[in-house]
């Protein structure tokens, strides 16, 4: 170690959070500049996380954070890109393999569900870094291979595998970025949904380029050599995902997040992780190993990590879940967040995936007359949707008094209003306009919910909480194809259901007990 590094490590500071700042017994906080969002039963962990937060705020926003912003955003990009990819080619897959039931959509939803649980739970067990690096690589490889399949069974298997690989991105990306982010910059989490918009525009745009001139027109005669458009779409999308995984490995040398390290008694690595960022970008970092060690060891996970076997892993996962319901207030927060994700998991896919069937029943004046026109209109609507996260971020930045919960309510209720209005569309122009504004407003809600969710889960179980939230929406989306298949999607009923569910989500936001914009996350 160099003399300069020794000097940084040997510097000392007084702990900035005293025991008087935290009322562990009553789960309340005295008002101070260093208030945390909530307290944990482990006194040492609460204080250590506050010291880590102080160090992160002291370092400030650096080029390292900017790299993480774009690289983590690529995970959002991949998630929605694969979702819209599958929905874009599904009709032509069914033509070729003579299927009418949306079995591939079910496999996509199941893969996303498995991926969210697997990568989310493992991230709290072994760390965030491995999952961050592996998920996109595997997803890109499996996506390319999906385009080579010659039967519905093999196609569905690789749809499941690619979705499983990508399914943890929404769990991990906000989690990793949040655990490095200074408090004053936490509003940037809302912009991650912007990458979600990019992903769906890419998927629809690539489909627009390949499908109209390289696809069958029906079930009667659809040989593979006349229906290669969907394969080209998979090859192109898979190559893009694989390139993004390469960027993740080369642009930034991701270190394990300091909050995960501290939560697992790896104080030396946590201090070195923060100090290395400070040294590289010439920023101050007063945190030392002595500051953390003076607070004692973390006990919240130790009893479970002493038995690393199948039963021990199960108990540790169960323990992480119990942390999310550690007291009445936290339990109410977790339950409302999970319920919001479940309602959204039904309403949004039902609207976006099966809207064309509703429009087709309204007549030629409303829906596009050919495949080319369908994808043109979809491309316009999905491009406009990218404005939702920008509006959400602007509201949080310029009107902080509204807070996360206020913007969630605005996004949910306004989406309900526009979706209800959508049932009265009379022309194609009105269709494109209402579709675009509906996507924009629902993305206001999505953007803030994606940011709010990891903020209200403690670092000791943040990935687990994220995975449960995403799993709720994935589980709900498994039901959507069944609803669409066995009900009349040509009627306006599904749109009324979507609007009502999103409106309820907006109202639930007012009942959420935590407002992260006013406190630092633990």
TrEMBL record:
It is a multi-pass membrane protein. The keyword Ion transport does not apply. InterPro entries: MFS_dom, MFS_sugar_transport-like, MFS_trans_sf. Its main location: membrane. PROSITE patterns: MFS. Keywords: Membrane, Transmembrane, Transmembrane helix, Transport. Residues 61-517 form the Major facilitator superfamily (MFS) profile domain. It is found in: Membrane. This is Major facilitator superfamily (MFS) profile domain-containing protein.
